[in-house]
Amino acid sequence: MSRLNRQQDNSGNGLWAGVIVLCIGLFYFLDRLDLHLPHWVFSWPMLLIVIGFVMAARRKFQGPSGIILMLVGTVFLVDDIVPFAWDLRRFMWPIIMIIIGVYLIGKASTRKQQYDEYVVRGGSTSDDFLQATTIFSGSNKVVLSKDFKGGNITTVFGGTELNFMQADINGEAVLDITTLFGGVEIMVPASWDVKLDVNTIFGGIEDKRLIGVMPTPGKVLIIKGSCTFGGVDLKSY
């Protein structure tokens, strides 16, 4: 990927990072004005809700990361405002898992409308569309398609390795990944132009691609999605 394209991707990520930092700054600035507002307005759970809303809005509320962050903030906020007889926080993780489950089911239903559903566990494939679902296990996939169109990768409490070194793209392909308590390693040819648009919560993305290699025109891979309590590694050779 060229340095110019990397700068363009970073500028987009920097914009939303700036919005979040701006919200935090305004949050604490208003707190110092002594406006005699309810204490919960300037509490850290409310800050989580605001940050989660910004992240969810960026993805048009199509990913779980921002929604989960808003849920965590809401649970602690309600527990602080309303004195329940029982601890509401006990139900936080079960509710989060239910939301993630509903999201994955809805995502699978959407995939059926795009192409036939199948689960990839290992080996190689020459299919133009890739769907890999890894839950409490590992998956290692070599993609051989010479006209790769895109796919959906879901990794929950597991690991997924995708090797595109023998694949090719004609135009633009979109790879949608959802990672929760897991990791995804993606290996792509150095000539591909890769654009990253992945939301992270308590996770990270490591771009280990070669620097200074000019991408071939007409070979664009867009990686989007969410990474929560996990990691995504991107490599090129």
From TrEMBL:
InterPro entries: LiaF-like_C, LiaF_TM. Residues 16-111 form the LiaF transmembrane domain. It comes from the Bacteria. The chain crosses the membrane at residues 12-30, 36-55, 67-85, 91-106. Residues 148-206 form the Cell wall-active antibiotics response LiaF-like C-terminal domain. It holds the Pfam family LiaF-TM. The keyword Membrane applies. The keyword Membrane applies. Keywords: Membrane, Transmembrane, Transmembrane helix. This is Predicted membrane protein. It comes from Chitinophaga niabensis.
